[in-house]
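Onboarding guide, step 5: your first structure request.
Type a short instruction followed by the sequence, for example:

Predict the 3D structure of this protein.
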Amino acid sequence: MPIKGLTNAIKESFVGFAWQRCKVHFMRNILARIPGKDKAAFGARLKQIWLQPDIDTARHYAENLLDEYENRYPEAMQSLEDGLEYSL
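The system replies with structure tokens like these:
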């Protein structure tokens, strides 16, 4: 997975710095796995993760979203789950 390779390179080259994934590009990657007719509505819900007032609330919101959509959009939810912490 390219992100893991990139994060390892960052850890080696920039000791003490953390990787933070761009939320815009992350959202685009997730939305690429959502049917076109559902993108706008789901995208609005997805965006709310990063609009929460603190990290704990953001995680809780994301967990609820994962639970709600895991059966409907499994690939998108796997992508969200895999990259969430890097984006927060």
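Each response can be followed by summary notes, for example: The helical segments are 2-13, 23-31, 39-47, 55-69, 74-87.
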